[in-house]
Predict the 3D structure of the following.
Amino acid sequence: MSSRDLILARVRRALADVPRDDTPYDRAVRRDYLREHGNRSAGRTVDLLAENLADYRALVHRCTAGELPATIARLLAGRGAASVAVPAGLDPAWLAAADVTRMPDSAADTPAALDRVDSVVTACAVAIAETGTIVLDGGPDQGRRRITLVPDHHICVVRVPGQVVSSVPQGLERLDPARPLTWISGPSATSDIELDRVEGVHGPRTLEVVLVSAR
Amino acid sequence: MSGGTYLGMPAFPKAAHEAVRDETLRGNLRHATHTIRAKRATAVAEVSDWAELREAGKQIKDHTLRHLDRYLVQLEESVTAAGGTVHWAADADEANRIVTGLVKATGESEVVKVKSMATQEIGLNEALEAEGIRAYETDLAELIVQLGEDRPSHILVPAIHRNRGEIRDIFAREMGAWGRPAPEGLTDTPAELADAARLHLREKFLRAKVGISGANFMVAETGTMVVVESEGNGRMCLTLPETLISVVGIEKTVPTWRDLEVFLQTLPRSSTAERMNPYTSTWTGTTDSGTADGPRDFHLVLIDNGRTDTLADEVGRQALRCIRCSACLNVCPVYERAGGHAYGSVYPGPIGAILSPQLRGTGSEIDASLPYASSLCGACYDVCPVAIDIPEVLVHLRERVVQGGPVTREGVRVLVKPAKGHAAERAAMRAARWAFGRPGVLRAGQRLASRTRRFHPRTLPGPGRAWSDTRSVPEVPAEPFRDWWQRTHGGKDTSK
Ligand code: SF4
């Protein structure tokens, strides 16, 4: 017997006490928890996102769509970034004002090559206000997962209020499980030394989130 | 199950300077667990529907376990359809053989690993080592443990027994032998220590061709794997290598994508006391070659290794709901005094006390004594985000040790003889004596409390009272288990 069949047979024998007409999945779980915590206007939800991002040491900036290129250019210059990884589908206007070498995201790039890139600029798929989380789904304006991982400085643009949801349940609803997802809540951190949170281990040590509104 | 070197008590005869180190150990543990306790309470209080989330988490896991065969088959189909390959391992040896074979097939002789309880449980690093494959642990705490040639003592923070000064010394002394040495003049500030780890591990990430991980959740409906982490070492291991091998216990399955909405709220708040951990990665099989995002090859190794035996016990199976948040360790007065190593397994603390004896059986002295490594105060149950009634299972397992009864071992129903007069029982009774002095007298009270706690969550009349009130955690001996064990020659000298 294969181990697969062996394990499945053991499971079935172990569950001999479970009746055939056991409560089906859709009635087995009482989902009387909240869809979101509190009742906020869209504007307040964006404020909460900003607060929670900042609470976990992300640097938060707000601007209008028109100001975005200048904002990004300023943040890159402030870091002294010379090179920037750019997802294939990023709106070229976002980097129009920046004086940097653009490194297009390419499957051929080695991790070592990425390690020499100073910064990365991406959009996101969704942002969750209650937890201060941005989620990347590898869409054209976000690129392969590694470009937001290896460089030490990540600028992530969130279109507000459209891309912002309140809660984790609402966030999951908007996401496609078939895509590789990266949920980011503040820069990389560890609690491994005396259970105390320290920012900055392997992922980007600086996370800047730009909340951009239409006007 | 391997991990014999964990057997902390009888096989832990260390010299006097160990006892001195124990002072440090207890200080480190007390400091760390008390800090996180308070933070966790705050993180939990922030969500008004905690009780409902906890109940839903319990129900999702219970339902999955009750239909685990169906969900495992569905999971296999989904992962395969998404381009992954599923392997099944009945025990630790088989899992190690599968993983070793997969690594060898790549032609590589080193792998990067992200912290996984399952791979520790099966002793994967040692198995790889025996085949000439070097496994690099990349989680900061695991790195500390690996460099210090130490054993993990906490689920979430395996180096919780080390303070910053000790960590500095380990890094300064050992990093050079494994790769990039620690920076000159390294101090013990946590930020500098984290930075030293970043530099040391980066070269390993950048050249890694094979990554090995566990998973916090596997979604049957979609074939999605979920890894919850903080440092980004998980992202490195999951994203940069060409081959990814995930070794996961069968009980990590959840039916649907939607189910994650519960656990992605309860797990971070229970474990690191955060609204959300810094990074969560999810992936489904492999991405197509056009996108080329992440590993080209994905292997999922599903392990049983005692889980189906645990599942066969109607009372004990709830232990399989565990999402390894470690909240129960952090509140446990016995864990705080005894330290993680005393539990003799990769699963320490209250969850270890009910999981290890079920995964491994109660044949050995250590496993027979684990159900007694508790004062049944119930604090673990109160904090558990999937409401595992740990005291109930402890009492159940104590009965099993003392009275014997039917159990399932490697899929076969067997009758365990009462341990009366056996070495196992004597070990268990010695542990009990340590934990609360007069086991016989307290037994009735414990059972009462355990059986009725759910109806009277705070106060019970009579003897149960002390056990049900988490705010008056019963006194645990001031002396740590290991000291007591050594001083009394394994509890044999009962006059002390
Ligand atoms: S038993 Fe509960 S509290 Fe303990 S680690 Fe598991 S889920 Fe967390």
